[in-house]
Amino acid sequence: MFKHSLAALFVFGALSAGVSVSATPSYEPLYIVDGQYTATLQQRAHHWRLQPLRGDEVDITDHAKDCGSSKPIPNGLWFVSQDDHGRPVLVAPSVTALPAGFPQHVALRACGENVDDAVALFVPPVALTWINSNVGTVLIDD
């Protein structure tokens, strides 16, 4: 009797697992901490978390009026690169969904710095220096 109940339980579990797999799949990207990005930004809180490969994480929060962005930066993974003048920029890979008309490149500048770009993200200077030297990808979230 126990053997039959165990077999029935196993079959039921396998069938129920198959049902959940056949449901509509999610194509939203999944991000893994400590593997795909080395900095995160929570935009609304103006909170940066810098995650070095060695050592402790560093949290930086700045509520200055000249920090952040005038337009919300779309959530997702962004690569850190440089523009033609060697200044840091964020570049959206294809996995990061951008609203119509939003540029694929966003200038990274120190808080209070003047900028000619249409969209820029202003970062506390100490974080910008670290990002420019140590970060390959940034995860932006609300």
Structure description:
The protein starts with a helix and ends with a strand. It has two helices and eight strands, in the order H-E-E-E-E-E-E-E-H-E. With 142 residues, it is of the alpha+beta class. An eight-stranded mixed beta sheet has the order 3-2-1-8-4-5-6-7. It has one domain (39-141).
Brief descriptors of the model:
alpha+beta, 2 helices, eight-stranded mixed sheet, 142 residues
What's a quick, concise take on this entry?
The protein is α+β, with helices and mostly antiparallel strands.
User: Mean of residue pLDDT?
Assistant: 79
Beta-strand percentage range: 25-35%
Structural class: alpha+beta
Give the helices and strands as they follow along the chain.
Answer: HEEEEEEEHE
* Separation of the first and last Cα atoms: 54 Å
Shape: globular
Spatial strand order of the main sheet: 3-2-1-8-4-5-6-7
Helix content: 10-25%
- Sheet with most strands: 8 strands, mixed
Q: How many helical elements?
A: 2
Kindly provide the radius of gyration, computed on alpha-carbon positions and rounded to a whole number of angstroms: 21 Å
Question: Low-confidence stretches at least 5 residues in length (pLDDT < 50)?
Answer: 6-12
Number of domains: 1
- The tally of beta strands, per DSSP, is 8
